[in-house]
Amino acid sequence: MARTSKRTHVSENTIAIQGTGQVKQGGKSYKAGIYARLSSDQALKKRESLDGPNNSLETQIEIAEKYVEDWNQQHKDRIEVVDRYTDLGKTGTNFERDAFQRLMQDIRLGNINCVIVKDLSRFGRNYLEAGNYIEKIFPFLGVRFIAVADGFDTGVEGSHTGQIASEIKNLVNDMYAKDFSTKAKLSLKQRREEGSYVGGPPPYGYEAYMEGRLRKLRPDRNTAEIVRMIYQKFVETENCKAVADYLNTRRIQPPAIYKKSGEVYCPPGVAYHRWERSAVERILKSSIYVGTLVQGKTSMTARKEQNRVKKSEEDWVKRENSHMALIDEALYEQTAKILRKIQERTQSYHHPTAGCPIGENIFDEVLYCGMCGRKMTRQSYVKRFTDGIQERRENYFCMDSGNQKEGCYPETNRISKIDLVDILMTLFETEFSTHLKKQKDYVELGHAIIQQKIQELHLKLRQIEKQNQALSEEEGQKYMEYRSEKIAQEEYVKYRLWKDEHMEELAKQKAQYEEMTKNLERQVETYLKAIRSLVKLKKREILTKDLVETLIEKIYVYPGKRVEVIFTYGEGVD
Fold first, then answer.
1. pTM above the 0.70 mark?
2. What angle do CA 326, 328, 331 make, to 5 degrees?
């Protein structure tokens, strides 16, 4: 049976010209979307060197609009411009652009059936993808494609004779993009080796200026002293947090806010944004403050601009004495030595050979701050007694408490594991004596809870099986579409890669759920023994992560060691 389009088209026999009263017989009506693209945010300033003198977004749109105006005067077919789609700062080597995706969405909805661009290079510089859209996807969707400057129009009879020419142009655009990318990388590397700062905004304490064709760094007279003060305070306190607190006390603007406002200190009456420990640490670790410029640590893939790949250290471009240093070598080395000592000390806290390994966080999934609802963070440390005995202690605290930031609360919300367990044991004793008169009743309740969790896992396994079956059926349909040339091979390959990856992820989930089910079934009796022991309140070490999550849905902690517990089988208790 032939495929019937559900889209509504204006009659092909009579087309009225708006505003003229004229009527043209035998024409078609097209709802057009004009697409324009500019590859770089800097192109507005460097239009000649990047994309040519006539490729501004405004110029591209004007050329397309003039083409439509001339066309409507000379032909029976009428083109109506419905919308304009512009991508600024987007590369032509892929089609993951916001405006282009919006255009495709309007095409699928039937709002657009004609696409107009200034030339093929504005549409895209990837030969395969551009050709796939022009020769496969657009014809399948009933979309007319017009490249004004190239004289390419799929809606004109005989236009397919220009297919070879369009393929050559797309291939040239693809080669241009790759060649431009290669040359740009070589130019970037050369400028780095010459000592030019090719990063984004200059680091805190410096400002950028042009020295010939090189972008150089020089001390920012507003913030250079603050950088020196940061190093000196850190050497005195040996604590990044203490330095951050000192900066906050003086209401010195952090780097990001200073770059935006140009104000070193927060003006009165303006909300203050605090320094974080991490910002202080980044400054202390950067060799740029001793005049050494290290660049090229990461690289971008050609297909995904947002994806950055870390490069090996031997590929970094390092240039010493590239600019004036703010810190002398002796102070920088002293700072680095302290940072190493802090790192070693921190690692020793977590080292299993110390005899006090970190145990399982039994409250990881259930413990929340009662003030803001955020999960509480565990802090672990080793307490050393005078007799040489070491014991690992744990505290839980809310990251937002004790903070002056907007939306936070100044009172510290913190509780030790010992206090929390003592409170829970008292609550358990109350719950058991009030709601569970007999130990047998609670054992049966615990068994029912475990069986319910097993049933939930079985349900998830059935859902995975359904997804696997649906994917298999969809893959067969896609294959038939490919074989019948309804979709291009490239599209089918992309689908297969996605499908295989998705199937692999489902297989991992299935294995995980099956293992969890086996563990629950295998440990039912273990849980029941633990519950019996817990009912008798033999010892607090009986609390385990599995048991806590079986008995408790959520624990809310409030300042002053007040605790609210919501049990899985009853109402919350304060």
1. no
2. 115
Contact criterion met (CB below 8 Å) for 189 and 296? yes
Q: What angle do CA 493, 498, 502 make, to 5 degrees?
A: 145
Q: What is the largest CA-CA distance in the chain?
A: 104
- Cα separation, 111 vs 107, in Å, equals 6
- Compute how many other C-beta atoms are within 10 angstroms of the C-beta atom of residue 542: 16
Pairing of strands 390-397, 414-416: antiparallel
CA 481 vs CA 444, 447, 491: distances in Å: 56, 52, 10
CA 422 to chain CA mean position, Å: 41
**Which candidate, 238, 270, 458, places its Cα nearest to that of 346?**
238
Let me know the angle formed at the C-alpha of 528 by 527 and 529, rounded to the nearest 5 degrees.
Answer: 90
Angle between helices 224-237 and 277-285 (to 10 degrees): 100
> Contact 87/98 with Cβ under 8 angstroms?
yes
Provide the pLDDT confidence category of residue 204 given band limits of 50, 70 and 90.
Answer: very high
Q: Which of 120, 117, 87, 118 is nearest to 102 (CA)?
A: 87
Q: Would you state the structure tokens that stand for residue 375, as one six-digit string? A: 């999960």
Tokens for 254, please give them: 């952090």
What distance in Å separates the CA atoms of residue 364 and residue 131, rounded to the nearest whole number?
Answer: 52
Are 205 and 224 contacting, i.e. CB atoms less than 8 angstroms apart?
yes
Contact 169, 120 (CB under 8 A): yes
Q: Decide if pLDDT at 11 tops 50.
A: no
- Cα separation of 543 and 223, whole Å? 53
Instruction: Give the tens place of pLDDT for each residue, 370-394.
Output: 888 889 999 888 777 777 677 888 8
